[in-house]
Each structure stands twice: as structure tokens, then as C-alpha cells.
Amino acid sequence: MTALKLTNVCKSFGKVEVLKDINLSVEEGEFVVFVGPSGCGKSTLLRVIAGLEDATSGTVEIAGQLVNDVSPAKRGIAMVFQSYALYPHLTVYGNMALGLKQAGEPKQVIEERIAEATRMLHLEPYLQRRPAELSGGQRQRVAIGRSVVREPKLFLFDEPLSNLDAALRMNTRIEIAELHDKLDTTMVYVTHDQIEAMTLADRIVVLRDGIIEQAGPPMELYNNPENQFVAGFLGAPSMNFLPAERLGKKAKTAGIRPEHIRIGKTGQLAARVTHVEHLGGDTNVLVVLETGEAMTIRLFGQHDHNSGDQVHLEFSDADCYLFDAEGGRVA
Questions:
Q1: Domain identity same for 146 and 256
Q2: pLDDT tens-digit profile of 282-320?
Q3: Which of 188, 209, 260, 300 is the most buried (most CB within 10 A)?
Q4: Helix extents (H) in the chain
Q5: Sheet (strand 262-264) strand order
Q6: Model's pTM, two decimal places?
């Protein structure tokens, strides 16, 4: 069953077009992640789905129901924000119970749902604490739990981990993935973090300037980008680009991922090392070619390269991506 269907969705603020003819279907139980640069329209699209913004044109359907004129509270959705949005005067239990009480749910149902949600999110020790007594990660888990107890048709996440430090982001990301597996419910998630997108998504939707550039499973987008923008957006460090003529190719631009390049005494391209990043398990080597283009090489493990070293770059033709003058992929 299709959990969410967007048909020709457009959104303008005055004369500014933020979303341009968005068409997308999300299947029941799917985890879809919207990614793209700042200002690409990903958060606006989430707000249109939630009903917090009206679509200028086009239709939004949730579980087969047209919801353009349905209020957010009646769309069967639950939304988790980056700001937590918890009531400071209520306990964890009170925050999670409030929406259910307002909906008129029986006390026994409220207690059962909160017990299950707190068990899944490991919140049992904190039920009587107030938000000020919790860490950022615990507050975000409460915000997620408040959504879980409502048993929505659709979960919407708007950059929920952006306020957390790196370690908490990783832990909470794992908890969200486990929660999705346990609930088997539909989730739509907005992030600017590629790691979140690649590790959480069943399908990634890459947006730029209000349009969908490409949608598909994470590794499909990584290995088979349809254009130069998607190729450069996914991956850290990002794909290296240089004029294709440097490699004897007839396309406009050639792309090579940092992990596909080796450093040797001979190779296709001569370069000089400008900087080395020692990351422990990986080493990033930044170089500049004799022709002036900067490139990054990602090496597994620890390597002794130094600024100023003269090196040669080796790579396989099979690992080169080619793009035409408009940025489209060339086979």
C-alpha cells in the first residue's frame, strides 16, 4: 500500500518557487530520507506533507486519502523536530501522555502505549523527570516517544539529530533505525547529514532548487548517480572532478571518488601533496595536479605522506564517471 503520494506538488512564497512539480510515492513501511543543500526545499516539502504549509498546487495523499484540506492534527502523522518541543513543566510521562489525553484515549491505553514506547527507547528510568533534568539525547528520545505512542500512519522527522554531538548522533541514529525495524512503520526524514541518509534510508531523495534530482536506494545513488550534482553531493570526501580531456576522454567532466585513487611512483596524473589528514583508520591526502586541479585521495589505514611530496595518481578507467556540459551522466 502507498503510504504517501505527492503529485505535481509546487510551493511558492510570493514570487519565489521553493518546490517545483514534486512527484513521489512512499510505500508502507519504507524509510525515505530527503537530502540536499541548504535552501533546496527539503524542509518545506516535509512541512507541506505535515500540513504546516499549504501546497500552492498539486496533491498530497496519506494512506490513500487526499489531505490537502485536512488539518495537521487529523492527517494521522507525527512529527519530530530538531528543537524537541517538549513542555518544560511536564514530566517525561506527562509529555508523552498529553496528546493521548487530548485525544480522549482511556487511561489503560495511555499507560500501555507509554510503557511500550519507553521500553523501546530505554526511557524507563526517566519517566518522572522533567526535560531540564535530561541530556539532549534523552530529550530527543522523549520527543520520538511522544510520537510513537500516537501510533501514526506516518512519522516525519525534521533534522532531529542536528542539535546533538557526534557520539549522541550516532547512538540516536541507531535507535531510530531499530525503532523503524520494530514498528515497521513509514518514516520520512530530512537531514543534511550524509551519514544519516546513507545508514538510515531504504531510499534517498536528493533535492536541488526545489526539484528531485534522483531517488533510489543509497548505494544505487552512490554507485550510479544520474548527474554530476548527485555524484558530487553524496560521498565524504566528495567526488573529485576535473576536465575529461586530462584523461583523454571526450566528455566535458570526469569524476573519480577519493577511495578509488591510489598513490604510486607511476600513474595517469602527476601531483604534489598539499595537506595530509591523519584520521586514524583512514588518511586523506590532498594534492594539486600539475595542471592546477585540486584532488583528494582517501587511503585506508595510516600512511606517511607529507606536504610537498611529488606523487603519481593511479586509478581504473572503470572507476571514472563522465558528465556532459549540462552535468548529465555519460555512459
A1: no
A2: 999 999 999 999 999 999 999 999 999 999 999 999 999
A3: 188
A4: 42-50, 92-102, 107-120, 136-148, 166-183, 194-200, 218-223, 228-233
A5: 262-264, 310-314, 269-278, 282-289, 294-300
A6: 0.91
